[in-house]
Amino acid sequence: MGVALSILGPAVSYLEDRLGVGAGAIGVLFALSAVGNFAGAMLGGRWIDSIGGHATLTIGVVGFVVGASLIAAGGHFSIVAAGVTLVGAATGAADAGMNTMVVWARVGRSGPALNALHLMFGVGALIAPLAVDRSLAWSNGLWLVAALVGAFGLISATLLLRHRAPDAPTAEDHVDRPPMSPSTTAAVAFFFLLYVGAEIGFGGWIFTFAEDQNLEGSAPALVTATFWGAFALGRLLAIPVNRVLRPVVIVVSSCAISVVALLVMVLADGAAWSIWTSAAVYGLSAGPQYPTMIALVDARLSLTAKATSWIVGAAAIGALIVPTGIGPLIESSGSSTMPKVVLAVSAAGFLWALVVGRLISRESGRRRTDVLRPA
């Protein structure tokens, strides 16, 4: 999933030239990916309950492979758009399935496992810009990346067939961890809207930003890889950290560091050192936020497949609004608008994380008392 979903960002310049379009049209591709992601998340939540988690993941794997192949093969905007949309939909369904099953398999103690799961997405996202760069250099096309997605897809499907999907939590699990209310689900979902909007906005446009700041040759691809590499490292480090620190501390601290890193990039006004440093620090701090926020919910409340699908769907909306909005801003005002937009969204995410932490703590205490109160 990490490879397939991260093809678009480092391939922006290539796709603009091949398709004869500008940054605004590429922004439409980001939007289509997000729309597909939202639809896939809504379907994925239903499929987990009806056909099972592993069947849902298998559908996602097929979607990744076919979608990446369409992006590689497409000589027209409509074909690439279909591939991007399919990858987005497959991501939504698989994301809902994976997060739900890890939480179900490790009820109330999912933090390290969730960070390990999302670490592998970061590894794939790290591989993507390097694979795109080499694929374009060696073949002037994206077929190498599509082949890589196909190989990973075959491995994934083979492994899925060897394991049984975990079952949904039982009634006993709800005694200590009451189900999350719709209002808290909405609050958590809004955090993911802000977080993923910033992450995809930065990861999708940092290549273009680095190019416009006169980083030459493979440097823009390497900056992108630096961001995703630090992103993966952040999730790797979060695995042991989750065993000693509370999830709320990790989420709030990493949000604060993200804001500082982006502020440095904005104030430095495109200086090369700030691009490399901020990409690394922002990636390191952004990495743990998604899985650790889910772990924060799982530690205090019960997470259903339906709630997970709404969370993933909200993340897709963030991935629609922010990267799509950055495209026209780059065309009208220059690429320097990218870090400013991501900074504003990240600052809002930091403040909202404080709100969510208090809401979860309050609801967990109140609803646990209601569950335990004698009839």
Please give the largest β-sheet.
none
Tell me what portion of residues adopts beta-strand conformation. Answer: under 5%
CATH superfamily: MFS general substrate transporter like domains
Provide the CATH topology: Growth Hormone, Chain: A
CATH class: Mainly Alpha
- Tally of alpha and pi helices: 15
Could you report the average pLDDT, rounded to the nearest whole number? Answer: 86
Based on CA atoms alone, the radius of gyration comes out at 20 Å
Q: What would you call the structural class? A: mainly alpha
> What is the helical fraction, as a range of percent?
over 70%
Per DSSP E runs of 2 or more residues, the count of β-strands stands at 0
Q: End-to-end distance, in Å?
A: 47 Å
CATH architecture group name? Up-down Bundle
Number of domains: 1
Order of helices and strands: HHHHHHHHHHHHHHH
Given the C-alpha coordinates, what overall shape results?
globular
What labels would you give this structure?
375 residues, mainly alpha, Growth Hormone, Chain: A, 15 helices, 0% strand, globular, disordered C terminus
Topology:
Elements: H1 2-5, H2 12-19, H3 23-50, H4 53-73, H5 77-105, H6 111-139, H7 143-160, H8 173-176, H9 182-212, H10 219-241, H11 247-268, H12 272-286, H13 289-300, H14 305-333, H15 337-372
Helix pairs in contact: 3-4, 3-5, 3-14, 4-5, 4-7, 5-14, 6-7, 6-10, 6-13, 9-10, 9-12, 9-13, 9-14, 9-15, 10-12, 11-12, 11-13, 11-15, 14-15
What's a quick, concise take on this entry?
The protein is mostly helical and 375 residues long. It is built from 15 helices and no strands. 56% of the residues are buried.
